[in-house]
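Researcher: Excuse me, tokens okay?
***
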Amino acid sequence: MRTVLSRPDFRLLFGGLLASMTAESVLLLALAVWVKDLTGSDGLAGATIFVLLVPRTLAPLVGWFVDRYPRRPFFVVTNLATALLLTPLFAVRDAGDMWLIYAVAASYGLSNMTVGAVLSRLVRELVPPDLLGEANGALQTARQGLRLIGPLAGAGLYLALGGWLLAVVGMVGFLLAAVVVGAPWVVATAGPSPTSGGSPEPRPSRAVSAGGVERRPGWPQELVAGLRHLAGERALRRALLGYGLASLVMGFTESLIFAYVDRGLGRDPAFVGVLFTVQGIGGLVGGLLSAAVLRRVGELGSLAVGVALFGPAALMLAYPNLWLGLAAVLLAGLSLPLTLVGLHTLIQRRTPPELLGRVSAAAEAAVRCPQAFSIGLGALVVALLDYRLVFASVGLATLLAGHYLWRGRHLSPPPGPPGRPLVPVQRRATEARQVEVSALTGTPDR
């Protein structure tokens, strides 16, 4: 990880992202706690996360926009817009204003997906292929490390001073991210150079050649280009199928965790912030280990390990015991960065740059839409079934999904130590996909 952080261009991007990730870590749990406090409902609190994920259905459109415009200005504008979208939180007073929290959550979910797609392109541009795992691992380490203080701080700020301070903290974080990444001196320092080793920003495709006649590709074809790439690449297809199926049950835990704290442990809803902080410790460890795991078992192998580790964590939560619960959320935290680093690195290595925004957004939707569905269903299930039985079912299902992913790990062999080129299997797969998508997007082969 020190290798990629020694690069000045990546350090600048990393510094800007710390501000927005801090705002995110403070906001996400606190919004759900706010709804729980206003309504007293576990289901409505868990539904806050559902609302955050609903905008993922717009992934093809978002990815299309990301691929058509310069990535750095797009990143800056999106963060400025996110800060503005938090202002309705100042008007929330009682349960009748809960819809404002949901509206902000939906808007934030859309901007968060947009930033994720742009970030994938920025990292691909700045970092050479053999350091992508380290770069994604560094970002996940920071994101998960912030869970040590972010959720607990957000819940504490809400309990002490109310929701208006959450809006202020969030706005400041997103504004700082826009300023740091968009400042002229940052652009000059972090711009692509012949020795940077990353991928230069591709120009958006304008036309394709068919029978010697130039024509403009139809917008429906451009919108689905990311989905077609995901379906046509074997490793990506297996990754999204396995992780997507796991997400169908993982989302139950967003509502289950409130029932676990309330009915199982007999504590106030704000105690969920303590569990998320412990999860952050596991996430920090997982982020630090993710690059090494990826080098050893490859991208699909890392994804499989992450998904499978969620299984025993859910099984332990089926028995309400404080110490066992702390161990469970620690393990769940460890699983998350392994999963995300494996998936993001696989996408970046197996996708041509001109298609990366659409593929990243489509992959996010393919995983998060099933999760959003399961969160919505979980808000109902938690009121009808014993939460312990549901936790046990989630544990078994994720173990099966991890096994399916592990069996396909040969499709993405380990890339080798930093400084060495991609192994032949990966290079041939990338070149083959480059030729295939050139015909689809109209971008000439390079």
User: Anything to note?
Assistant: The first helix runs from residue 2 to 5. The chain has 19 helices and two strands. Residues 120 and 439 are 23 Å apart (CA to CA). Residues 185-197, 204-210, 418-446 have pLDDT under 50 and may be disordered.
